[in-house]
From TrEMBL:
It comes from Massilia atriviolacea. This is Lipoprotein-releasing ABC transporter permease subunit. Belongs to the ABC-4 integral membrane protein family. LolC/E subfamily. Its main location: membrane. GO terms for biological process: lipoprotein localization to outer membrane; lipoprotein transport. It is a multi-pass membrane protein. It is found in: Cell membrane. Pfam families: FtsX, MacB_PCD.
Amino acid sequence: MLANLPYELQIALRYTSAQRRSERNPMLSVISLISVSGIALGVAALIVVLSVMNGFQKEVAARMLSMIPHIEVIDERGGLPNWEQTLAQARANPAVSGGAPFVTLQGMLLYDDTMRPVVVQGILPAAEKTVSSIAERVKDGKLDDLQAGSFNIVLGYELASKLGVKPGDKLSLLVAPQGGAATAWTPRRQVFTVKGSFNVGHNDYDSSVALVHIDDARAVEQLALPSGLRLSLHDLHQAPKVARELADSMPSQLMFRDWTRQNEVWFAALQSQKRMMFLILVLIIAVAAFNLVSTLVMKVNDKQADIAILRTLGASPRSIMAVFMMQGALVGVIGTAAGVAAGVLVAMNIDMIMPVVEKLLGSKLLSKEIYFLSSVPSDPQWQDILMIGGVSVALSFFATLYPSYGAARTNPAESLRYE
């Protein structure tokens, strides 16, 4: 089969797989190994980093969406009247799968001598199950314990821990009154009974959010109407499109905000970081790829006699150039293949590797207070892997142009003069 290949490729394969001890220049094998290793290391590092960033984005988005709706509907006039009618109009869009009213208020939770800020979400438990998965994340109790008039409360896991409360304890919610003279500011106070806690795995919500029945929240804030409506979709990725469709088909005083806009700054920052990390790590691959320049220059000098003989046998300068370009490309492909294999292997087993690294270093590498997560997620995506492999091979190919061109300009008579 090899005999049927073009002779340029046969020579390139021979040069690439030649026994190292037969090389005239012993440094050539070392430089070649460094080139392959550098390309493989750069490719593997880029795959692992992008996989972790993809996993981070996917995991945080999933945990966010256990608390926030796909689309939020707010009436610009204030409260949302006839939310059932509004929900029915929204459900006319086949992309909408459910909806629930809500009330949001901010205040302070007081237990003994401990006080913590809190965002209280007033929900309708039965309807809330259609727009979020929070019911599945409640422990030491259940979401149905939030009954109208009971003034029960479910706290975020971290918030409950900081307050030092457990199910059955009573605490006070302090909220600022609406309007009134600033000089006579007196917060409203309402006693709630702790019925449980939830853990969504996102520190922002676990440490600062509490759930109560929507009627209890309205009573505390003295609201006649819900603050708005939460909608869930069959496909969350269609949220921006569906939000525009609903805005066009429903009353103009309603405002629609999809989940990507609610966290627009965070997702934009993550995408920017991902692009910058890609560019930085591509430079590592570029440095390794351009080590091929020195490798091929030394190879050309080492094979001067071979080049001269090939030229005297009728090989054209273009064929000589093709030999060394193919050799460099083969080195790049080998390094890229090794890097892809290593990178995918590490990325798919990062959850087992990181605990070992943390144990060896004796410290936690990922703080949940900063990064929202306590473990390193990974989501290798084949489009990223193919792009990385393509960039690596392309850089390796471009690195072969200069030394290959030099080989094509070799003068056979000069090369054989001292042989």
